[in-house]
Write a structure and sequence with these properties.
By secondary structure, the chain is α/β, with parallel strands linked by helices. The chain has a single domain, classed as Transcription Regulator spoIIAA. 38% of the residues lie in helices and 35% in strands. Belongs to the anti-sigma-factor antagonist family.
């Protein structure tokens, strides 16, 4: 169980994080530690999830927390590059209805 998070800043107001590996109860705190400060500093945060092999409810909780933080300050969280399995998880939970999801990496 491991996760890798690489920051790629696009502009002063937007940051992209490339996440790879598994986002679960063990690794989600690492994602949260990296993601939440960016949500407070940026108007837009993009998560490239094309290399995420697995995500559980703890990982979804981190995404929801980031979404709420950005939305409260007029920003947006963009998720892109999700595998069919991860897209299905987002559909089942209803998150595709509220979050910005883009195809491709």
């Amino acid at each position: 169980m491991n996760v890798s998070i690489e920051e790629q800043t696009r502009t002063d107001q937007a940051t992209t994080l490339v996440v790879s590996g598994e986002v679960d109860a063990f690794t989600a705190p690492q994602l949260k530690e990296k993601l939440m400060p960016l949500c407070k500093e940026n108007h837009e945060v993009c998560l490239d999830l094309s290399q995420v092999e697995y995500m559980d409810s703890t990982g979804l909780g981190v995404l929801i927390g980031a979404f709420k933080q950005l939305r409260s300050q007029g920003g947006r969280l963009i998720l892109k590059g999700m595998s069919p399995r991860l897209k299905r998880l987002m559909q089942i939970t209803g998150l595709t209805e509220i979050m910005d999801i883009e195809d491709g990496a």
